[in-house]
Design brief:
Layout (H helix, E strand, L loop, with lengths): L2 H21 L10 H23 E2 L2 E2 L3 H20 L8 H17 L6 E2 L5 H35 L12 H29 L9 H24 L4 H28 L2
Helix pairs in contact: 1-2, 1-4, 2-3, 3-4, 3-5, 5-6, 5-8, 6-7, 7-8
Length: 266
């Protein structure tokens, strides 16, 4: 059996078990068994990392096919939130990221490997642009998940349902983390756009114009959210809607056309 299939299968099962471990006790008076869940997650992340290294980097080429990029984004987000879970209560986020990672590891088993980028000098800037863009995307998606958590905690507190939030961090703490993460992600996205604008040919070419415009609009929206929060005190539902909108545009920019090209037109 293919080593990639074995690795994906192990990661799928371990992520699934981590998801079940969290969900089965999510609203239990004592909370979920984090040690058990994170134990399964460690096994999954190690298998995921080994697989991802084989999928993305192979000798002198970098494989940035859409399935591999999604898997890489999933790995970065899963690892980051798992580390955060060691010190902060992110019980609501864990089943979401582990569940998605589990499903995608299963999907990878059945998706053929396509599209590579030769690792040569003239491609270094392109690889840097893509890498920073992916990092920015991961950070901003984490911020979006935090926005959902803020909204959930706020909703339960307004309904005076303290039982539902007893195992979650204080609202103000999560909100502060949300905007710090959002600021870092926005800076990374800005850096990626600057590299593309000044160092990549065809950044505004007809084939790429929709990606460029959508990502720039998303950047403007993220910037507006930060300005609105720190200068005007924006929070709550307005922030959630704007973050979802910006993240949807950024996702469409990064993955929309590639999905059509690699799956619908292949």
């Amino acid at each position: 059996m293919d080593f990639l299939v074995i690795g994906s299968s192990i990661a799928f099962i371990a992520y699934l078990l981590a998801t079940i471990a969290i969900l089965s006790r999510l609203f239990h008076p004592d909370g979920p068994n984090l040690k058990l869940a994170l134990g399964f997650a460690v096994v999954a992340i190690i298998s995921h990392f080994i697989n991802e290294f084989q999928l993305v980097y192979n000798q002198v080429v970098i494989n940035f096919s859409l399935p591999n990029v999604i898997s890489l984004v999933s790995l970065i987000i899963t690892f980051t939130i798992s580390v955060v879970a060691l010190r902060s209560k992110v019980n609501l986020l864990l089943p979401v990221i582990y569940g998605f990672a589990s499903i995608w590891q299963l999907v990878l088993i059945f998706i053929p490997k396509v599209e590579t980028i030769p690792l040569v000098t003239e491609k270094i800037i392109l690889v840097s642009h893509i890498s920073i863009a992916l990092i920015a995307y991961c950070i901003l998606i984490i911020a979006t998940l935090y926005a959902f958590q803020v909204t959930y905690i706020n909703m339960k507190l307004k309904k005076k349902n303290l039982t539902a939030v007893v195992h979650l961090p204080p609202l103000m703490h999560v909100e502060r983390q949300l905007f710090n993460i959002l600021a870092v992600g926005t800076v990374a996205l800005f850096a990626s756009e600057i590299i593309g604008l000044f160092f990549l040919e065809g950044f505004f070419a007809k084939a790429n114009i929709h990606k460029t415009v959508l990502s720039l609009v998303a950047l403007v929206l993220y910037t507006v959210i930060l300005f609105g929060h720190f200068k005007q005190g924006w929070r709550g539902h307005k922030v959630l809607v704007l973050i979802i909108s910006a993240s949807a545009l950024l996702t469409l920019s990064y993955f929309g056309s590639r999905f059509v090209r690699e799956f619908l037109l292949s």
